From TrEMBL, chains A, B:
Residues 60-240 form the FAD-binding PCMH-type domain. Keywords: FAD, Flavoprotein, Oxidoreductase. Coiled coil: none annotated. Belongs to the FAD-binding oxidoreductase/transferase type 4 family. It comes from the Bacteria. It comes from Chitinasiproducens palmae. GO terms for molecular function: FAD binding; oxidoreductase activity. One of its GO terms (biological process) is respiratory electron transport chain. This is FAD/FMN-containing dehydrogenase. It holds the Pfam family FAD_binding_4.
Length: 483, 483
C-alpha cells in the first residue's frame, strides 16, 4: 500500500480571493454561509476566475458562473451541496472541463463547483492492482503513477493531461482501447458520491466480483453529474503492457472489415485498437497533413490496428494478416517495423484534430450503430449529405471494435443549417437502432435529441431518478434531461 | 440476421391444468382474472406442479407457491404483474431455479411467475456478434446456438444446462472465466424489463458504447428481481475461441500466486481462468476422488490455469512458465499435453461437487476480498475455524483472478452452529473490506448479513429504489432486503 498526495499549487486562489469583491449577482447570504462552512479560500468571485470557469471544450455559449467553490475534501463537497440546496441555489459540477457536450459550461446563475483540489491518490494495492483516488486527479497523472509500479490504467483519450478521473466516470469516457478494455464503467470498482441532500454515499467496493444487491455505483457512471457528484473512486488496473504492435490494413468493403475484426479478435487477444477510416477521411487527412498515401492503390476502407502485450506481437500479427490476405479478408496490409513506422501509420487517424479545425464551424458526431447497419448507414448518409450540402465536406471514421462511428461534416456558416444537419443525422441513427452518442455524452447540446435514443419509459425513469436523488433540482439541471 | 424459436414441449401444462382444482389458498378473483387475461393454459394450481416450483437449488426451506403463472411473451409477464398488483398479491420470479441463495424459493402465499416459456432466440447479428434473446433461454442453449455460427458466449457455470439467461442477468452470474470476460453484467448490452406497475421498460440498446444518459439497465442486473422482471436481453458475443491450453502450477506462498497472476495477465492475454486451491483443498480432493497427487512434493498453493485462443497457446504458456520458474515465481508447473491430460489437471478443481456432498450439512461461502487481504484472511480463518470447530473440515479455493474466495466448511449438525460459522466468517470479511457474496448473491439466505457488506447509505438507497419501482411491494419481497 502506497499513498501519495499530489498538490497542484496553481489551484490556490490568489490572496484575499474568496472574499474579493463578493458575489456578482446571486444570493449574498448563501455566499457568506459557504465562506463560514468551508473557509474563504474555498470560494472565488473574481472576474478572471469566473471567466476561466465559463466554458468547457464544447461550442456551448460561454456563461460565467455566479462564483466558484473549490472544496478540498469529499466532506466539503457534501457540505457545499447542503448549503446551496438549503438556499435554493444551483450548482454546475466542473472537472477538467474537457467535455464536448457542454455539460460543464455554466447555465445562467449557477455556482461552479470545481473538483480540481480533490487531487489525492489515497491508496494503492500493488498486489491486486487497485487504486483509490479522489475525483480531481488528472487521467495522465493516474496513468503515470501506476505505471511506475508496473501497472497500467487502460483508459486513454486525447484530453488525458487535462481531464479528471471523476469526470471520466461521470461521462463514462471511452477512447481508442474500448475494444479490449471496455469504457470507464468497466474500470470502476467503487465510488463515493456527494448527494444533493448533503450526505456522502459510500460505495467503495474494492473487489472485482460483488453480488451483494443492487450495484448502485452504476447509476452515477455516465449520469453526467445529474444525480450526485463523484468524489472518490476505486479503480482496477491491468499489469503493465510494454510492447505494442501496429498495422494498417486496406479493405475492399465493409464486410471485409467486419470479418477482419472478428478474425483479429479471435487470433490476437492482445488487440487493443481497431480504428476504421473510410477513403474520404484518409484522402482528406493525406491532403491536409502531406502524409504519404498508405498503399500504392487507394481502397474504400482502412483499419488501423494496435495490440498491447508484455511481449512483441508483431510476428503473430504478421501471421494472422498473411492468412487474412490469402483468405481475401484484407486487400493489403503493412505491419510497422519500428516505432517511427508505427507513428507514420497513426498519422492519418491522428489528423482528426487538424481536420476538425479545418472544417469549422462543423458538426461532429460520435454516434453508435449496430454493426449490421453501419455500412448502409454510412452509404446513405454520405449520399444524403452530399446532395443536401454539396459545399461541405463529410468524413467518416470510427472505432469499429465497439460500433462507435464518427462523422465530421462542415463547414456550416449558420446555426440553422447546423441544426438541420444534426437532425438529419440523428433521425437516421434512430431509424438504424443506434444511439446519438457513443462517447461524448449528452450534456446540454444533445438534450433535444435524447428521445431519438431512449424510449419514453427510459426518459420517464430518468426523470423519476432525478426527482428521487435531487428533488430540489440543485445539481447539473438541464444536463441530459431538459431543464 | 437469423431468427429461431426454440419451443420446449415439456413446458406445456397438462390438459385442464390451469383450471384444475383452482387455487389452493389465495384469492379466487385474482386467479380468475389471470385466467381471463392470459388464458387458462398459462396457469396451474396442480399439486405436482406447485411442488416442482417449491424450491431452488439452495437449502432454503421448501414452500409450494399458491399457484404458477407461465407467461408466453413479455407482454403477458407485464399483464400478469399488473393483475397481481391490482389485487394486492405477491410474486416470486422463477428462472432455471439453480440459485444458491434461496431467491427463487417461494415465500408463504406467493405466486410463482416462471419464465420458462419465454424461450425464443429473437435475432442474431452475425456480422457484429450480438444476439437478442428472451429471458427463459437456458444458458447452454444460447452457447450452442451461437457456436454454430462461429461465435462464443463466454459466461459459463456448472448449472449451464438448467439456468436461464434472464436469471444469469438478474443475479449477475460469474463463473470461472471472469478474469478475462467479466461477469454477466459485462455481456449485457440491452434489456427489456416488466415493471411492477404493469408496463414494459424497453432499454434494448444494441451498441457497445452508449453514452446517452443514465444506464438504467444496470439497475436490474444483479438486483435479483426486486425492481422488475428481465424479459428480453441483447447480449454481446466474442469470436469463437477453439483452442484451450491448461497448466497446473505449485506455489510456496500467496505472494508467488499474485506475482504469477500478474505475469500471466501481462504475457498471456488469452488467460481465461486462474483457479487457486490451497493444500487442504487439493489433499481432500485427492483423497475423495483417488486422483494422483499433482506433483511429487506437496505445496501450500496450486493454481489451475486455462487460456482460450483461436490458436494453440501452449508454447507461449510453457515459455512464460519456464521464465516464472527461473524467477522463482512458481515452485513447479506442468502444462497439459493432451485433452485427457487437461481433464486430469481439472480433476482437483472439479472435485468441488463431491466435496460439497461429503461435507453436508455444510456452510459454503463465495466471499470477495481485496487481494492484499486474502492471504491473512485465509490464514486467520483457517486457524479460527480449526480451533472453534475441530471436528469439521475447512477447505479454501477460489477464482484468484477476481478476488472471489470459496470456503467450504462442514459438516455441522445443527442450525445454530451453522449460523455461528456464518457470522464468524462474514464479520471477518467485513473487517477485511470484502463482500459477503462474489457470485451466488443474497437471496433470502444472506439478507441478515447484508449490512456487513453495504453501507447504511447504500441500504437506504436500495430501499428508496425498491419503493420507487415497486411501491406496492408486489415483486420478490424479502430478497436482498428484509421483507
Amino acid at each position: 500500500m502506497r499513498v501519495a498526495k499530489v498538490t497542484n499549487e496553481k489551484l490556490e486562489f490568489n490572496n484575499a480571493a474568496g472574499q474579493g469583491d463578493g458575489p456578482a449577482s446571486t444570493d449574498d447570504a448563501l455566499y457568506r454561509t459557504l465562506v463560514e462552512r468551508l473557509g474563504a479560500d474555498r470560494l472565488s468571485s473574481d472576474a478572471s476566475v469566473r471567466d476561466a470557469h465559463a466554458s468547457d471544450w464544447s461550442d456551448a455559449p460561454r456563461v460565467a458562473p455566479a462564483w466558484i467553490v473549490m472544496p478540498r475534501s469529499p466532506q466539503e463537497v457534501a457540505a457545499a451541496l447542503d448549503c446551496v440546496r438549503s438556499f435554493g441555489g444551483h450548482v454546475v459540477v466542473q472537472g477538467g472541463m474537457t467535455g464536448l457536450a457542454g455539460g460543464a459550461t455554466p447555465r445562467e446563475g449557477e455556482i461552479a463547483l470545481s473538483l480540481a483540489r480533490l487531487d489525492a491518490i489515497e491508496a494503492f494495492d500493488e498486489a491486486g492492482g487497485t487504486v483509490t483516488v479522489q475525483a480531481g486527479v488528472p487521467l495522465a497523472t493516474l496513468q503515470q503513477y501506476v505505471e511506475a509500479a508496473g501497472w497500467f490504467f487502460p483508459l486513454d483519450l486525447g484530453a488525458r493531461g487535462s481531464c479528471q478521473i471523476g469526470g471520466n466516470a461521470a461521462t463514462n469516457a471511452g477512447g481508442n482501447r474500448v475494444v479490449r478494455f471496455g469504457t470507464m464503467r468497466e474500470q470502476v470498482l467503487g465510488l463515493e458520491v456527494a448527494l444533493p441532500d448533503g450526505t456522502l454515499l459510500s460505495m467503495m467496493n474494492r473487489v472485482q466480483k460483488n453480488t451483494t444487491g443492487i450495484d448502485l455505483k452504476q447509476l452515477f457512471i455516465g449520469a453526467e453529474g445529474t444525480l450526485g457528484i463523484i468524489v472518490r473512486l476505486v479503480l482496477k488496473l491491468v499489469p503493465a503492457l510494454e510492447r505494442s504492435s501496429t498495422a494498417l490494413c486496406a479493405m475492399r468493403d465493409f464486410e471485409q472489415a467486419t470479418r477482419l475484426l472478428k478474425r483479429l479478435r479471435a487470433g490476437l487477444p492482445g488487440l487493443s485498437s481497431f480504428e476504421l477510416m473510410w477513403q474520404d477521411f484518409t484522402d482528406a487527412a493525406a491532403q491536409l497533413t502531406g502524409a504519404r498515401a498508405p498503399f500504392d492503390t487507394r481502397y474504400p476502407l482502412y483499419a488501423l490496428i494496435e495490440t498491447l502485450n508484455a511481449d512483441d506481437d508483431s510476428a503473430v500479427l504478421e501471421r494472422v494478416l498473411t492468412r487474412a490476405l490469402e483468405d481475401e479478408i484484407v486487400a493489403d496490409a503493412v505491419v510497422a517495423q519500428s516505432l517511427e513506422h508505427a507513428r507514420q501509420l497513426w498519422q492519418y487517424r491522428e489528423a482528426v484534430g487538424e481536420l476538425l479545425a479545418a472544417l469549422k464551424p462543423h458538426a461532429a458526431f460520435d454516434v453508435g450503430l449496430p454493426m449490421e447497419k453501419m455500412a448502409s448507414f454510412v452509404a446513405n448518409m454520405r449520399a444524403t449529405l452530399a446532395a443536401r450540402y454539396p459545399d461541405s465536406t463529410h468524413l467518416f471514421f470510427g472505432h469499429l471494435g465497439d460500433g462507435n462511428l464518427h462523422l465530421l461534416s462542415g463547414p456550416y456558416r449558420d446555426a440553422a443549417t447546423l441544426h438541420d444537419v444534426e437532425t438529419c443525422v440523428y433521425r437516421a441513427v434512430a431509424r438504424a437502432g443506434g444511439c446519438i452518442s457513443g462517447e461524448h455524452g449528452i450534456g446540454v447540446l444533445k438534450t433535444p435529441y435524447l428521445p431519438l435514443s431512449r424510449s419514453a419509459g427510459e426518459l420517464a425513469t430518468m426523470r423519476a431518478l432525478k426527482a428521487l436523488f435531487d428533488p430540489q433540482r440543485v445539481l447539473n439541471v438541464g444536463r441530459i434531461l431538459d431543464a
